């Protein structure tokens, strides 16, 4: 007889089943078009299990969004880890981020539904722990290296850069030519660099 799973293993398994099912459904049809009944059916768990782990569908969505943001963060961090030149890191990071943002789950959950479902403040708070943190670190390093003049507020500049990068991803997702958008974004970012 196989050993019994611990409560922690069962919890982890149930939460994983719920987030995997919800992620697939939210990606395919969007948050508003997916019911909790569909999620529990796809996850193979009971409605009670859903509400034992999450207060509501929005809390489950937040967990899915946090998962996606963590994955993006890890992927972008590997780009910066391999690059010591700040400008090359910026270019490589932008390129990778634009690639990532074309993935259906990132586009539908992270860029389209998250601001509306979670509200702007919560969406930004989660971004601050993920993508915004990477941008802030990159800009802080560029200031320290003398590549860009010290702004009055690195956090404010980081928010503006993140907004420009996200807007670029949305433009591409909506049919704008990638090469043109990426070139314009890089021109904007390189405009920060001290001549």
Poorly predicted regions: none
The DSSP helix count reads 10
Helicity, as a percent range: over 70%
Oligomer: single chain
Order of helices and strands: HHHHHHHHHH
Question: What is the number of beta strands?
Answer: 0
- Category by helix and strand content: mainly alpha
Query: What is the typical, i.e. mean, pLDDT?
Result: 90
Report how far apart the termini are: 71 Å
Rounded Rg: 19 Å
Gross morphology: elongated
Largest sheet: none
Strand fraction: under 5%
Tell me what you see in this structure.
The mean pLDDT is 90. It contains ten helices and no strands. It is mainly α. The protein starts with 6 loop residues before the first helix and ends in a 5-residue tail after the last helix.
Summarize this, please?
The chain has helices at residues 7-29, 36-43, 47-53, 57-81, 86-100, 104-118, 120-129, 131-144, 154-173, 178-190. With 195 residues, it is mainly α. Helix 1 (7-29) packs across helix 2, helix 1 (7-29) packs across helix 4 (57-81) and helix 8 crosses helix 9.
């Amino acid at each position: 007889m196989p050993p019994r799973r611990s409560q922690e293993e069962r919890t982890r398994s149930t939460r994983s089943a719920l987030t995997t099912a919800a992620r697939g459904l939210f990606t395919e049809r969007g948050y508003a078009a997916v019911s909790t009944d569909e999620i529990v059916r796809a996850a193979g768990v009971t409605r009670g299990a859903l509400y034992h782990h999450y207060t509501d569908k929005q809390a489950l969505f937040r967990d899915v969004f946090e998962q996606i943001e963590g994955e993006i963060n890890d992927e972008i961090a590997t780009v910066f880890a391999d690059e010591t030149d700040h400008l090359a890191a910026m270019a490589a990071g932008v390129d990778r981020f634009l690639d990532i943002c074309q993935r259906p789950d990132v586009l539908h959950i992270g860029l389209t539904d998250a601001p509306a479902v979670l509200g702007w403040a919560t969406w930004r708070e989660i971004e601050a722990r993920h993508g915004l943190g990477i941008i802030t670190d990159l800009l802080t390093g560029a200031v320290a290296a003398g590549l860009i003049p010290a702004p009055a507020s690195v956090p404010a500049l980081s928010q503006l850069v993140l907004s420009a990068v996200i807007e670029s991803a949305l433009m591409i997702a909506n049919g704008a030519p990638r090469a043109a958008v990426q070139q314009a974004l890089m021109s904007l970012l390189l405009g920060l660099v001290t001549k």
